[in-house]
Amino acid sequence: MDLAYIWFFIVGILFVGYFVLDGFDFGVGMSLPFLGKDDIGRRQIINTIGPVWDLNETWVIVAGACLFAAFPEWYATLFSGFYLALLLILLALIVRGVSFEYRHQRDSLRWKKGFDTLIVVGSAVPAFLWGVAVANIVQGVPLDVDHEFTGSLLTLLNPYGLLGGLTTLLLFFTHGVYFVALKTDGQVRRDARTLAAKSGIVTVLVAAIFLAWTVQNAVAANAPAVALVMACAGAAAVLLIASLVANRIDREGWAFGFGAATVAFAVLTLWLALFPNVMPSSTDPAGTLTIENASSTDYTLTIMTWAAVIFLPLVLLYQGWTYWVFRKRVTRSRIEQAAAVVH
C-alpha cells in the first residue's frame, strides 16, 4: 500500500488516541457541577486526572504535527478554513490548563469556584467543537479549485455538524463520568454511577441518530469503505450499550473500557466515511482534497515512518507506565488528611 494511505490511517489512529484519552478528561471536567457537592468532592474529581491530563493533551499536538508533515495541503486548508473554531478550542484548552494549576493557589471558596467554572467551560467547548469540526470534514465544506475554504464559522454550524458536536459532548461526558466512578470512592463514586446511567441513555439516542446519518451519507456517496463504516458504527452502538450495562451492574472498569472502545469506533466510523478523501468539497468536486493530492512526497513519508516505528512504542510504554503508577483510587479520606495538614 502507498505510504500516503498508510499515513492517513496513522493520523486517524492518533486522533482516536486523542479523543479517547482527552475525551474522558473533558468528561471529568464537565462533571464537576453534577458530582462535586463540596470542595473536597471537587478536589477528588479533579485529582482523578491530575497526573495525566496534560499527557493526554499531547496527543493532539502529535496528531497535528503528523497531519502537517504528512498532508500539508490538508493541514493548510483545515487550519485556515476552520481558524475560528480551532482558535476557540485552543483558548478553551489554555483556560482549562491554567484553571487546573491555579484553583488551589488560594483557600477562598469563591476563587476555587471561579476556576471550577472555567474548567467546566474549558472542557465543554472543545468537546463540542471537535465534534462540529470532524463532522463537517466528513460531510464536506465549500472549497474552491485552489482548495481554499470559502465559507465562515456559521457554515460549520449546520444540522449535521451541530449533531456531531452534541454527540461528542455527550460521549465524552459519559466517558468521563465512568472514569470518575472508576477512580473515586464514597458519595462521588455512587453519584457518578447514577449520573452515568442517566447521561448514557441520552448519549445512546443522540449517538444513534448521528451514526445512522453518517452511514446514510456514506451509502449515498458510494464510499469505498461503506461496509467498514457500517461495521464500525454498529460496533460503537453495541459497545455504548455494553458500557451502560456494565455500569448498571457496578463493573466500573468494564464500563470505562467499553466507553473508551465506543469513542474509538465512533472516530473510526467517521475516518472510514471520509476515505479516500481528506476534505471533500461540497460546492466544486475539483476542490476536493484526497489522500493522493494532499500528501507529502514519498521521501518525507518514509522518514516519518521510521520515526514513528522507533518513537511511538516508547511513547505508548511511557504513557502506560504513568497510568499504572497512578492506578489507585482517589479517596476522600486522603484529601481530607492532606487538607488538615495544610491548615
From TrEMBL:
GO terms for cellular component: cytochrome complex; plasma membrane. The keyword Heme applies. GO terms for molecular function: electron transfer activity; metal ion binding; oxidoreductase activity, acting on diphenols and related substances as donors, oxygen as acceptor. Its main location: membrane. It comes from the Bacteria. GO terms for biological process: aerobic electron transport chain. It is found in: Cell membrane. The chain crosses the membrane at residues 6-32, 77-98, 118-139, 159-182, 194-213, 225-246, 253-274, 303-326. It is a multi-pass membrane protein. InterPro entries: Cyt-d_oxidase_su2. Keywords: Cell membrane, Electron transport, Heme, Iron, Membrane, Metal-binding, Transmembrane, Transmembrane helix, Transport. Belongs to the cytochrome ubiquinol oxidase subunit 2 family. This is Cytochrome d ubiquinol oxidase subunit II. It comes from Microbacterium caowuchunii.
